[in-house]
């Protein structure tokens, strides 16, 4: 078991990964500065949708690998948040509405026609990670949610200011994450500090969070590159 | 796509697998005839608990492999049924209470000390099947629930008649399955008939259900054998 000091250092090291979070990516900075065209925002939303629609499968893979009922009982809420419990509900639906607010159809998001290879590889790597790595590492990889509320708050302000042509209800997903992400991050942090007791396990958790930062960063690389060609 | 006649034949072939269901196993017949000792019932319950506690992970593996939100929204209820949403809830908890009613402690069920190798292999094979086979086949493998309500009704009558020393609340799991199993089987049958359109997919679904019958049957083989040695 880790001492209290070791746990504090571990949490600090996890939080320090924020320096690798995708809010610092040039494409993301351009987005929040109001410098993206409608077409670039569409490319971003359509590609990011591939990430969104795979989240429930990633989280179900964690459930499938987790032997603790009390962890599963809370983790399952993430799946419900994304899928909803009925038509018209859930984060995936909210993202489809964001796409519509940006001028995309549900069909062109749903059939993944705009998804570029780099995004597909990154998202698939994330799902495979959750399937194949120890469940505690997969939980740790979700800890980018520690950094998400700040990003979401900044994004909401930026979108309302710079892209007033986007209908406000289209931004509902970002708003929902302002409360969901802290709740999810708190639980994930509890789990990781409780179940990663050895130095090797803590190193594994840090590497998992670093990997996840790479997933998000490389998605923006691929999206930015595809837009640069005017595709 | 299958014709209506082909679908009817497919459903009939699935239902016909009932001839391979574990209610016909000699150990199961002996149980319902009141011929088992307290010790044999304990062995059965402790081993069967290994199956119960793995069900949420099996169902989460199906969620992880299923690309359809509307299927996931219903399938996730199975996980909630087994795990519950809070301490003291759910099918796994109900099975622990059954074990207590039979004279087992939670500790000896929870640490799997009574689980015999044949049961472990069979249950692990079932979870691996759900992880690695097409999600539609994993859904088809759950269709033993078509046969479960009859078994549960018969078991309830038999236990109340032959084993009156078991506290009635200990039988709550069996009672809950009288309503859950038909609901679950109906959904699984809808999914399998909707998504197994080709002859190869229907053959895969039939093989999956046959495999699942083997899982349940071989568990009873192993439990019976372990009891025969007086272990």
UniProtKB/TrEMBL annotation, chains A, B:
Key words, A-Z: Oxidoreductase, PQQ biosynthesis
Pathway noted in the entry: Cofactor biosynthesis; pyrroloquinoline quinone biosynthesis; Cofactor biosynthesis; thiamine diphosphate biosynthesis
Known catalytic reactions: 6-(2-amino-2-carboxyethyl)-7,8-dioxo-1,2,3,4,7,8-hexahydroquinoline-2,4-dicarboxylate + 3 O2 = pyrroloquinoline quinone + 2 H2O2 + 2 H2O + H(+)
Domain of life from the UniProt record: Bacteria
Signal peptide coordinates: none
Any one GO molecular-function label of the UniProt entry: pyrroloquinoline-quinone synthase activity
Domain Thiaminase-2/PQQC span(s) in chain numbering: 14-221
Enzyme Commission no: 1.3.3.11
Stored Pfam families: TENA_THI-4 (PF03070)
Family under the similarity heading: Belongs to the PqqC family.
Annotated function: Ring cyclization and eight-electron oxidation of 3a-(2-amino-2-carboxyethyl)-4,5-dioxo-4,5,6,7,8,9-hexahydroquinoline-7,9-dicarboxylic-acid to PQQ.
HAMAP family noted in UniProt: PQQ_syn_PqqC (MF_00654)
Protein name, UniProt field: Pyrroloquinoline-quinone synthase
Lineage, broadest ranks: Bacteria, Bacillati, Actinomycetota, Actinomycetes, Kitasatosporales
């Amino acid at each position: 078991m880790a001492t209290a000091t070791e746990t504090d250092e571990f949490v600090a090291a996890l939080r320090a990964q924020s320096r690798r979070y995708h809010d610092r990516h040039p494409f993301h900075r351009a987005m929040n500065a109001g410098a993206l065209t409608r077409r670039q925002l569409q490319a971003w939303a359509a590609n990011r949708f591939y990430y969104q629609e795979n989240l429930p499968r990633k989280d179900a893979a964690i459930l499938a690998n987790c032997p603790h009922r009390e962890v599963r009982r809370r983790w399952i809420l993430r799946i419900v948040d994304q899928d909803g419990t009925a038509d018209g509900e859930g984060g995936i639906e909210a993202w489809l509405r964001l796409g519509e607010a940006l001028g995309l159809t549900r069909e062109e998001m749903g059939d993944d026609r705009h998804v570029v290879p780099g995004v597909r590889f990154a998202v698939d790597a994330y799902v495979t990670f959750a399937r194949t790595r120890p469940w505690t590492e997969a939980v740790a990889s979700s800890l980018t949610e520690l950094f998400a509320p700040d990003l979401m708050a900044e994004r909401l302000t930026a979108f309302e200011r710079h892209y007033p042509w986007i209908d406000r209800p289209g931004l509902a997903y970002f708003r929902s994450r302002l409360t969901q992400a802290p709740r999810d991050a708190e639980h994930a942090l509890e789990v990781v500090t409780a179940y990663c007791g050895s130095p090797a396990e803590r190193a594994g958790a840090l590497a998992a969070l670093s990997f996840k930062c790479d997933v998000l960063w490389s998605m923006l690389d691929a999206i930015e590159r595809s837009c640069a060609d005017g595709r």
